[in-house]
């Protein structure tokens, strides 16, 4: 659990902190697994069309590698912008 | 920090305030629920926190997928995002966010969806 995460929970009693922290862990795990599945499906759909062979061809492998890396970079960038917009919205309220 | 953690932090600051037993004023909950007063009990607060967090995660995921579909070339010529894609992503996120706010406002003002 990231320390920066818990800085927002400072004002809370210990048991509340633990409960929130457990909730966040749970959500993060679930989200990671979901992301994993959706990434696999996406890259498969975009890169694999040929079923004359049982194993992935070189070109398909390259495509999948690029697809995954691109999506992860994209996801990081979206995360940054999302966090910016979120904190803007929070301070405006 | 992972993207999920980054966006949860501002929300948690507000939630921490609302769970504080010493609050005398009405608390601000970051959703379309302006009438919550200081009397909400802890269980409710946790329930709302969980719902809100799940909503944010869902929003983030949909936003990510939508903007990827709209902005990124599926031919995957390279592993990096090019300049055009980067700008597109930034703008897409910004616009998606605006649409999200607009609809949020319409729903909380109107009260119910139009029949």
UniProtKB/TrEMBL annotation, chain A:
Organism superkingdom: Eukaryota
Principal location: mitochondrion
One biological process term in Gene Ontology: protein transport
Keywords assigned by UniProt, alphabetized: Chaperone, Disulfide bond, Membrane, Metal-binding, Mitochondrion, Mitochondrion inner membrane, Protein transport, Translocation, Transport, Zinc
Topology versus the membrane: Peripheral membrane protein
Cellular localisation: Mitochondrion inner membrane
Gene3D superfamilies, per database record: Mitochondrial import inner membrane translocase subunit tim13 like domains
Pfam families: zf-Tim10_DDP
Location of the Tim10-like domain: 25-84
One Gene Ontology term of the molecular function aspect: metal ion binding
Gene Ontology CC entries for this record: mitochondrial inner membrane
This protein's domain notes: The twin CX3C motif contains 4 conserved Cys residues that form 2 disulfide bonds in the mitochondrial intermembrane space.
Family, per entry: Belongs to the small Tim family.
Subunit structure, as described in the record: Heterohexamer; composed of 3 copies of TIM9 and 3 copies of TIM10, named soluble 70 kDa complex. The complex associates with the TIM22 component of the TIM22 complex. Interacts with multi-pass transmembrane proteins in transit.
Function as written in the Swiss-Prot or TrEMBL entry: Mitochondrial intermembrane chaperone that participates in the import and insertion of some multi-pass transmembrane proteins into the mitochondrial inner membrane. Also required for the transfer of beta-barrel precursors from the TOM complex to the sorting and assembly machinery (SAM complex) of the outer membrane. Acts as a chaperone-like protein that protects the hydrophobic precursors from aggregation and guide them through the mitochondrial intermembrane space.
Protein name: Mitochondrial import inner membrane translocase subunit
Species, as recorded: Hibiscus trionum (Flower of an hour)
From TrEMBL, chain B:
Residues in Tim10-like domain copies: 46-108
Membrane topology (UniProt): Peripheral membrane protein
Signal peptide interval: 1-18
Keyword list, A-Z: Chaperone, Disulfide bond, Membrane, Metal-binding, Mitochondrion, Mitochondrion inner membrane, Protein transport, Signal, Translocation, Transport, Zinc
Localization per Swiss-Prot or TrEMBL: Mitochondrion inner membrane
Main location as per UniProt: mitochondrion
Gene3D superfamilies, sorted: Mitochondrial import inner membrane translocase subunit tim13 like domains (1.10.287.810)
Role, per record: Mitochondrial intermembrane chaperone that participates in the import and insertion of some multi-pass transmembrane proteins into the mitochondrial inner membrane. Also required for the transfer of beta-barrel precursors from the TOM complex to the sorting and assembly machinery (SAM complex) of the outer membrane. Acts as a chaperone-like protein that protects the hydrophobic precursors from aggregation and guide them through the mitochondrial intermembrane space.
Quaternary data: Heterohexamer.
Family the entry assigns: Belongs to the small Tim family.
Free-text domain note: The twin CX3C motif contains 4 conserved Cys residues that form 2 disulfide bonds in the mitochondrial intermembrane space.
Descriptive protein name: Mitochondrial import inner membrane translocase subunit
Organism (species): Hibiscus sabdariffa (roselle)
Taxon lineage: Eukaryota, Viridiplantae, Streptophyta, Embryophyta, Tracheophyta
């Amino acid at each position: 659990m990231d320390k920066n995460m818990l800085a927002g929970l400072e004002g809370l009693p210990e048991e509340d902190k633990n409960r929130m922290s457990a909730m966040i862990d749970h959500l993060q795990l679930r989200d990671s697994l979901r992301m994993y599945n959706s990434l696999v499906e996406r890259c498969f759909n975009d890169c694999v069309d040929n079923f004359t062979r049982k194993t992935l061809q070189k070109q398909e492998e390259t495509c999948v590698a690029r697809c995954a890396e691109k999506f992860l970079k994209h996801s990081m960038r979206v995360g940054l912008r999302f966090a910016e917009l979120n904190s803007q919205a929070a301070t405006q309220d | 920090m992972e993207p999920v953690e980054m966006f949860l932090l501002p929300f948690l600051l507000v939630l921490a305030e609302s769970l504080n037993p010493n609050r005398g004023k009405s608390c601000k909950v970051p959703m379309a629920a302006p009438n919550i007063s200081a009397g909400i009990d802890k269980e409710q607060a946790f329930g709302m926190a969980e719902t809100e967090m799940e909503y944010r995660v869902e929003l983030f995921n949909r936003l990510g997928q939508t903007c990827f579909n709209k902005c990124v070339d599926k031919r995957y010529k390279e592993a990096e995002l090019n300049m055009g894609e980067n700008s597109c992503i930034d703008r897409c996120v910004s616009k998606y966010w605006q649409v999200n706010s607009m609809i949020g406002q319409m729903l909380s003002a109107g009260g119910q969806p139009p029949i």
